Amino acid sequence: MSAVQGHYDPAFRKLRDAFEQNFTVRGECGASLCIQDSQGRTLVDLWGGTHTDGTTPWTRDTLSIVFSCTKAATALCAHLLIDRGLLDPNAKVAHYWPEFGANGKENTTVRDMLGHRSGVPALRDPVQPNGFLDFEYTAGRLAEETAFWTPGTAHGYHMITFGWTVGELVRRVSGKSLGQFFRDEIAAPRGIDFHIGLPKSDFNRVSKLQTFQPNPNDTPSDFVKAMMADPTGLQALAFGNTGGWYFDSPESWQADIGGAGGISNARGLAAMFRTTLGEDALFSKARINAMRTPVSEGDDLTLCIPTRFGEGFMLSIDNQKLDGEGNSAVIGKRAFGHVGMGGSLGFSDSEAGFSFGYSMNKMGGGILLNDRGQSLVDAAYACV
User: Fold this and answer.
1) Is the predicted pLDDT of residue 355 greater than 60, yes or no?
2) Which residues touch 363 (CB under 8 Å, ≥6 apart)?
3) What is the rounded CA–CA span in Å between residue 74 and residue 81?
4) Banded model confidence at residue 28, pLDDT cuts 50, 70, 90
């Protein structure tokens, strides 16, 4: 019996086959895959496999942590406020958040925040236990932090802190928590099954993740090498100074962790990015253009690889010649989206005419895509 359930347009047969091959060849555990077109039609809606216990089926409505795909949700909130004239991408952050304008961050702009150029991808001093579950505490710590570089002069992936740098702007300007604003203004009106702060009533839908198990023969990435070489360096702080945050706990599921704590599935990811497509797009053409226009390119001071970002979104990143897994996420030239650590992905491509979502519960190596996710992206483009 096939592990794959759901439906697909016959034009996407190769994509359906690639999804099944992830289970039969690449060791997928449980996963979902969805594609919607610019008219809002669902062309592919597939799922299969099991929870990480190996017995509970992954169903149509199963959810899982999608890590940094959450940054896209946070960025969409900021862009909505920009479209409404309440947030100016050229303004200094201190105009909206006075406390942030200290310790070398005085001239940081909103666009710097969205483009991973604000200079605070980590906190130097230890985060208090469970500090990441306290939004105001962590935002306050970032406001006090000394910039790792002069904001605007370089970029470095704000691995988790993006959820508070951009998220606090959303909170200050809207008067709502990040999770509430996203739910009220984006998710609920469009029926999008994506959550920054999951209600307890949905806990039974969550499939916990299986963390990546490295092979001793794997070649570590430069990021991992840097993290291991200096426990006090930027990479180790960005990844490990979290106050003991455990992403797959009910306490974390309920928290506003806008950089890495969102919970969704492929359908939710595709629907979220569908808000940037078609005549009924939720955002202006100017904002959508800003999402896909590079503002940060080249050497990433955090990830130690070349990366590319629009305002709040990853663009196509091709580092396939580098050693180690998870250094690339190759999508269309005009596409924009976001990966989640371990391999989840959502993106929008107006030229190809679709939005894409993929979620899974077995994490791969690296911060970007592994071969399971990239094979699906490649197959999707081959079908159109």
Assistant:
1) yes
2) 209, 210, 211, 212, 341, 342, 343
3) 11
4) very high
For residue 35, give the nearest of 26, 46, 49 by alpha carbon: 46
Q: How far apart are CA 209 and CA 191, in angstroms?
A: 25
| pLDDT one-digit tens code per residue, 103-152 | 999 999 999 999 999 999 999 999 999 999 999 999 999 999 999 999 99
Rounded distance, CA 117 to CA 154, Å? 6
Q: Over the stretch 244-297, which tens digit does the pLDDT of each residue have?
A: 999 999 999 999 999 999 999 999 999 999 999 999 999 999 999 999 999 999
Four-point Cα dihedral 249, 212, 66, 71, nearest 10: 100
> How far out from the chain centre does Cα 128 lie?
25
In the numeric block, the tokens 């594609």 are attached to: 35
Task: State the DSSP H helix or E strand holding residue 64, giving kind and residue range, or none if neither.
Answer: strand 64-65
- Set out the domains of the chain in order of their start, with CATH numbers: 4-73+180-383 (3.40.710.10)
Task: List 23's β-bridge partners, or say none.
Answer: none
| Long-range pairs for 14-20: beta carbons < 8 A, 24 or more residues apart | 14/379, 14/382, 14/383, 15/44, 15/376, 15/379, 15/380, 15/382, 15/383, 16/44, 16/46, 17/379, 18/375, 18/376, 18/378, 18/379, 19/46, 19/48, 19/376, 20/48
Q: How far is CA 318 from CA 86, 155, 307, in A?
A: 35, 17, 8
